[in-house]
């Protein structure tokens, strides 16, 4: 009779409970999470600058009088400033490997994406770039699984 306790014990063969094996990360997936953290950090800092531009100098942005989601540009500036600070901060913790930061990163990248979509008429090319980066960040943070 063999013992299954101690240093000679072998792990049970086959899938874990529930019938499926836990997915393993490949090197590129972990690298993509690191890259997503760096993108979040840089994107957050740029959004802070974007917010400061909107707060300080409203004539930098395009004016669209018939836009459905029309807000005061100073208000948009404060929104971008706050979201930018939060995205940069969480991006720093994603780079550090904090598990909670990946969940918060998905949420904040989603908020950033929505904010950029709503600000699309004010700074169209920049908003499209930020939307694309936010989609990548959301994807990279969603596909990562702890080993």
Overview of the molecule:
With 147 residues, the chain is mainly α. It has one domain (31-143). 64% of the residues lie in helices and 0% in strands. The protein is built from 4 helices and no strands. It has helices at residues 27-56, 73-96, 99-118, 124-143. α2 packs antiparallel against α3 (99-118). The longest helix has 30 residues, at 27-56.
Tell me the total number of β-strands: 0
Structural class: mainly alpha
Low-confidence spans:
none
The percentage of residues in β strands lies in under 5%
Gross morphology: elongated
What's the short version?
Helix content is 64%, strand content 0%. With 147 residues, it is mainly α.
Topology, element by element:
Blueprint: H1 27-56, H2 73-96, H3 99-118, H4 124-143
Helix pairs in contact: 1-2, 1-4, 2-3, 3-4
Record keyword descriptors for this entry:
elongated, 147 residues, 4 helices, mainly alpha
